[in-house]
Amino acid sequence: MSFGLFVHFKLKSGSEEDFDNLVAKTLSLIQENEPDTFVYATHSVQTDPRERVFYELYRDHAAFMRHEEQPYVQRFLSERKQFVERVAVTFLSLLDAKGISSGNEEL
Questions:
Q1: What pLDDT sits at residue 95?
Q2: Exposed/middle/buried for 57, CB within 10 Å: 0-12, 13-18, 19+?
Q3: Residue ranges, the chain, pLDDT below 50
Q4: Is 39:56 a contact under the CB 8 Å cutoff?
Q5: pLDDT given for residue 100 in this prediction
Q6: What is the pTM of this model?
Q7: In this structure, how many other beta carbons lie within 10 angstroms of the beta carbon of residue 22?
Q8: Domains of the chain (ranges plus CATH)?
Q9: Alpha helix locations (H) across 34-107?
Q10: DSSP H or E segment with residue 28
């Protein structure tokens, strides 16, 4: 069963570019090294330039745990503290989707 997260960040004023650069560096490593991370989408919020929203979808909870253990993810979690005013995480269980493939079959 797929496992997902919705993460909402409120950034410290003036830290938007630095946070986005940290995310971009981390995301490239996720793309290269994590085949069981199906979606790792980052968004800015049109109504507030200090807000960021992440949607993450993993093959299963074990894939999420492998993601969390990666050294580049640990570095992101540590370094983001200087840029983030607050963060809220919501864990999700996928019920249905369009366009998300688990390799051979569409979920």
A1: 87
A2: buried
A3: 104-107
A4: yes
A5: 63
A6: 0.88
A7: 17
A8: 3-93 (3.30.70.100)
A9: 61-69, 71-79
A10: helix 16-33
